[in-house]
Structures are given as C-alpha cells and as structure tokens.
C-alpha cells in the first residue's frame, strides 16, 4: 500500500435494532482499519449488515437502531488539517455524536432491554447452579454459566455506556473535577480527595465510561504513573457532556453530524432517488449543497455545479441544469448523486451498491467514473457490494462480511487467489465467470442465522461443507494468514485437518487475467 495512514478505525462495533419487544444484532464486533486513499470493498450476501455498517459510519441508522458498543475513530490527514474548509482537524470518535443525538426514549428502552437480559440470565444461572449441585450435566452447565455471566457483564457495560451519571455522583465528583480542570491540576490532587473519590467509585454497582476513566486516572496518580494529557482531556469532555442538558447535547451532536456528512463522509446509495428530490431541478440540488458547504454565491455555485456535472459525465450540462431528476435515466441520475456527493468535498466516499440497480454497460461506466474521481480528488472509497465480480475491478482491499461479522479480509489478490474462509470460497465459486457452458452455477445452500439470537460457534457452520465439531461450539478467532490477510475460521488452526479449496477456484486466475471478472 502506498500510504499506510489510517483514516478510519473501527473497533468492536456492535449495532442493534429494537424490533417490537425483541432485539436484533446486525453488527457483531467488527474491528477494521481503513487507510487514507485506498478503495476498500465490503462484500457479503444480502442481509449481512453491509448497509447497516455504512449507516453506522455516518450515524444514519434508523431511529430503532443504536450502536451498542465500540468506537469509530476518524483521523484527519495533513490535507484536511490544512484545508480551512474541513470541519474536523483533530481525531474524533464518531460514535460520541450518535450517543449525544439519541432520544431519551431510546435511552430508556436500551436500559429496560438490558435489565431484562440481566434478569433472564440470572434466573438461568440459578437453575443451572441447582443442576450442578445435583450433579446433572455439570460440565456443560458450568460452560453455560460462564457464557451467561459474560452476557450479564456485557449488558451492564452496554447500559453504563448509555447511562447519564446520577445527580448524586455528579455532586460528589464536582470538587475533584474542578481541581482536575485546572492546568496540571491532576498532578496536585490531595490524597484524601483521591481516596474519597476512589472509595465512592468502589461502592457503585457498575461504572459508567466516565467513572471507569476517572478511576484509571486516579490509580495512576496514586502509583505515580505519568498521565497522558489526552486522557485528562477526554475525561473533562465526558464530564462537560454529562453536566450539560440533554437538549444541548443533542443540538451539539446534530450539528457535528451535519458537519461530518457535509465535509468528511459522503454516501451514495443504490437507488439514486432516495438521495434526490424529485421535484427540484438537479442543478438546484447541487448548488444548494455547494452554497451550504462552501459558502458560494448563487452565480459561483451555478458555475461550479455545471463544472461538476461535466466532471461526472453529463452531456450538455448547461442545458440539463434545469431538468428534474425524472428526466434523467437511471445511470445519469446516479451520476448526479455522485456530483452532489462531490459538492460536499468529502474525504471519504461510501458507495453502497451504487451500480446494483443499473444494467451492465452502465455499471461499468459508473465504476470507471468512481475510479477516476477517486484519483482526481484523493478520496478514500468504501465500496459496498454483494457482487465479488465488481470487486476485482475496483478495490485495493476486500473485507468479506457474514452475519454481521468480518470473516475474512485481505488485499484483492489475497481474497481472489488465496482465500482461506469457506464462505469466501463459496462466494468466489458462484461467480458466473467460473461457470462452464452447460454446468449449473455453484450456489451456497441454506440461509444465514437469525440475528435475533446469540450465535453459538461459527455462524457459517450449518452451511459449511467443511464444518468440524468445534465450529458448532466455539467462535473461531481471526487467524492471521499474513500481515495483510486474516480469516475467521477454525480451518486455520494448526490442529485442523488440511483441506483443499474447491477445484473450480483454480480457474480464477485465468478468468481474471482474461479480464472476465470485473468487466
Ligand atoms: N431499521 C431496522 N430495523 C430492524 N432491522 C434492521 C433495520 N435495518 C436493518 N435491519 C436488519 O439488519 C440486517 C442487515 O441489514 P443490511 O445492512 O441492510 O443488509 P445488507 O448487507 O443487505 O446491506 C438485516 O437482517 C436487516 O433486516
Ligand atoms: Mg444493503
């Protein structure tokens, strides 16, 4: 890779949706880094969580969704730092905005859902403990109890990360926080003050994000370990947030989200009409964005909009400026959506199946356009698709998702020629370019697991021709194949039997070199 600087870093992301009285988990612990200037493809079957993941990046989840855990750090590059128009010049955790923007109703339902989870788990543990006492299925019962204990911890942690500090805690912590807020204050705290605070925190049933951080810092002061000023700043930031009214936090979060979507991350969706207003001329829609984000006059904006329309390949741009989206073909509309996205001057362009609704020749043109614009504007592109065939043509790296997890990642070459996960094999095997005349195309049997339940073991096991007993019991870790390549399958454990990947995959090299894939 030419450039090894991270621009986005996702860590332990969990996304859930409230569906009536149940909870569905769409993203299960995704951790992934995206580098400045690269094109990453995210590939998986329909329903695997690709769109939810992209919406998570810009906090566009529907109101019944929430990010239950994790962080998404955005790191601005030198260009962005020096550009007066960029909104974010320091690294930020995007998930904070989301939490701030959450309604109090959502907060309440997260709390009650987790309380219910804890209660159910505790009841089950009670029953299992009795079984162990009576010596019934003791080993399995103990494993189950360990799982349930972990679930209780997760539930507490999830609640704590959404909870506001209690009034009592805020009152108790005010004096020490006042000291910490002064320059160097943290290094001159009185011993009794530290002890009192630590005593108080020790007696809390579970700790919020703020309390955990405060506790860590105070322990460090006690042990005379140097304290990072960033840690202290983060603590002060959370403290301010906790002491501001919910309304003020929400307004602030929404303002930041607007900045994020305006100047940092832009998204292109599958259906152009979801992002365009059918009643307004396309030219007007582009100029509006330019005027909002770049503070241009109408005349300037109109000129720039026509430039952008030319750039995305609209013939007779001056004439077509006044047309409403309905007068454009599907492919042309998608070009307009791309122009609107570019008008925001994004650093990161997310394309969520931008060509799925288009016919094949138009698809190839739009892909070429995205490639060309990426180069010209130095964009980082996150390209979402269910079609691995498209990937060979556009991506530097690929992440394969299944049931809300990344199950394999690597360079495009790693994935096409050295895939290690049976699900990736299956996706590759169903590429039409691998089919021989007269033979049926390979397709994956079965369906993905229900997202309403906890998944035991490897979620792909029931559909996996190579599944072993352990796949039904334990979730595999991500095994590193090389520094650029990893796969989450027990087949990579040294104790597993050697398995040959499906024969038809050897034809891939030929298919790609003949440029049959990705055309
Ligand atoms: N607002 C929502 N409420 C409930 N479930 C949702 C919502 N949005 C997405 N999901 C569920 O999350 C899962 C992943 O969806 P999605 O990311 O759209 O899949 P895809 O990979 O096809 O883009 C699906 O099971 C879907 O039903
Ligand atoms: Mg989708």
UniProtKB/TrEMBL annotation:
Pfam families: ABC_tran (PF00005), oligo_HPY (PF08352). It is a peripheral membrane protein. One of its GO terms (cellular component) is plasma membrane. GO terms for biological process: peptide transport. Keywords: ATP-binding, Cell membrane, Coiled coil, Membrane, Nucleotide-binding, Transport. It is found in: Cell membrane. Residues 8-428 form the ABC transporter domain. Its main location: membrane. The keyword Membrane applies. It comes from the Bacteria. Residues 138-165 form a coiled coil. InterPro entries: AAA+_ATPase, ABC_Ni/Peptide_Import, ABC_transporter-like_ATP-bd, ABC_transporter-like_CS, Oligopep_ABC_C, P-loop_NTPase. The keyword S-adenosyl-L-methionine does not apply. GO terms for molecular function: ATP binding; ATP hydrolysis activity. Belongs to the ABC transporter superfamily. This is ABC transporter ATP-binding protein. It comes from Mesoplasma syrphidae.
């Amino acid at each position: 890779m030419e450039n090894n600087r991270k621009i986005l870093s996702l860590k332990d992301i969990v996304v859930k949706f409230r569906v009536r009285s149940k909870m569905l988990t769409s993203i299960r612990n995704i951790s992934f880094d995206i580098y400045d200037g690269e094109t990453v493809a995210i590939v998986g079957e329909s329903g695997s969580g690709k769109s939810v993941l992209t919406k998570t990046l810009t906090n566009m989840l529907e109101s019944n969704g929430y990010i239950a855990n994790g962080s998404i750090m955005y790191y601005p590059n030198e260009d962005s730092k020096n550009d007066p128009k960029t909104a974010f010049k320091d690294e930020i955790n995007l998930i904070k905005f989301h939490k701030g923007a959450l309604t109090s109703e959502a907060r309440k339902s997260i709390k009650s859902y987790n309380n219910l989870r804890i209660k159910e788990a505790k009841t089950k543990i009670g029953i299992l403990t009795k079984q162990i006492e009576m010596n019934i299925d003791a080993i399995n019962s103990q494993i189950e109890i360990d799982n349930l204990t972990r679930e209780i911890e997760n539930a507490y942690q999830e609640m704590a990360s959404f909870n506001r500090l209690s009034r009592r805690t805020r009152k108790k912590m005010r004096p020490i926080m006042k000291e910490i807020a002064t320059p160097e204050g943290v290094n001159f705290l009185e011993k009794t003050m530290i002890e009192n605070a630590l005593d108080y925190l020790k007696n809390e049933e579970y700790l919020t994000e703020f309390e955990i951080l405060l506790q860590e810092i105070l322990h460090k002061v006690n042990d005379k370990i140097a304290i990072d000023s960033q840690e202290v700043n983060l603590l002060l930031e959370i403290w301010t947030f906790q002491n501001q009214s919910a309304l003020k936090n929400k307004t602030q979060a929404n303002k930041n989200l607007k900045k994020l979507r305006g100047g940092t991350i832009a998204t292109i969706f599958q259906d152009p009409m979801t992002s365009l207003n059918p009643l307004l001329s396309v030219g007007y829609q582009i100029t509006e964005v330019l005027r909002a984000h770049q503070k241009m006059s109408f005349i300037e904006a109109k000129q720039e909009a026509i430039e952008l329309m030319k750039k995305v390949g609209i013939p007779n741009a001056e004439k077509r400026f006044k047309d409403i989206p309905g007068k454009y073909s599907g492919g042309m509309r998608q070009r307009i959506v791309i122009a609107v996205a570019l008008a925001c001057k994004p650093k990161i362009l997310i394309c969520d199946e931008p060509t799925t609704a288009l016919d094949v020749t138009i698809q190839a043109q739009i892909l070429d356009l995205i490639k060309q614009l990426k180069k010209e504007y130095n964009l980082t592109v996150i390209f979402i698709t269910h079609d691995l065939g498209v990937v060979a043509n556009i991506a530097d790296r690929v992440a394969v998702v299944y049931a809300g997890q990344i199950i394999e990642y690597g360079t495009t070459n790693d994935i096409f020629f050295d895939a290690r996960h049976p699900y990736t094999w299956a996706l590759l095997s169903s590429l039409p370019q691998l089919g021989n005349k007269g033979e049926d195309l390979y397709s994956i049997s079965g369906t993905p697991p229900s997202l309403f339940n906890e998944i035991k073991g490897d979620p792909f096991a029931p559909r996996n021709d190579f599944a072993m007993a352990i796949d039904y019991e334990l979730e595999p870790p991500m095994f590193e194949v090389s520094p650029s390549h990893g796969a989450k399958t027990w087949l990579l454990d040294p104790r597993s039997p050697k398995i040959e990947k499906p024969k038809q995959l050897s034809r891939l090299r030929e298919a790609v070199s003949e440029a049959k894939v990705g055309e």
